[in-house]
Amino acid sequence: MREPTSMDECVYHTIQTIGKGKARLWVLRENCLECGKALMSKPKDPKTGRFKTRSKEYICSECGHTEDIEEYAEKLNASIQYTCPKCEHKGELEVPFKRKKTKFFDEMKKKEVRKLALIFNCQKCNEEIKVIKLK
Predict the structure, then answer these.
(1) How far apart are CA 108 and CA 89, in angstroms?
(2) How far is CA 39 from the centre of its chain?
(3) C-beta atoms surrounding 7 within 10 Å
């Protein structure tokens, strides 16, 4: 499992406290399938030079190959370093980056809400651990 050297390599990165445990999750960008030279990224705005965050496609900076955001997301894997909130086992694993709608108790709202989360199980006690998409 490769750790990112900068946030420019990541599609997604989060560190969350889950009960007594915690999880660090990151998803690295993939190389272009056409040329294999550059990492795929969202297109940049020519005026500001910033990435277009709401863009529905990823583009290669070298060859110009474009890929729809859904197609690109299916290929991604999430790397996780975690401490289990139940047994306090420290582990690392890679899972496909597929989020699912799930219920969890929101401390701020004092009620159960449904949000997208990446769900995986502890390698030791098989406890289900949810890393929730915050925004």
Answers:
(1) 28
(2) 16
(3) 8
Contacts of 88 (CB under 8 A, 6+ apart): 20, 21
Quick check: 41 and 134 in contact, CB under 8 A? no
Place of tokens 């219920």: 103
Residue 19, pLDDT above cutoff 90:
no
Alpha carbon of residue 15 to chain centroid? 11
Per-residue pLDDT tens digits for 78-108: 999 999 999 999 999 999 999 999 998 877 8
Q: Is 37 exposed, middle or buried (0-12, 13-18, 19+ CB in 10 A)?
A: exposed
Task: Name the residue ranges covered by the structural domains of the chain.
Answer: 31-75
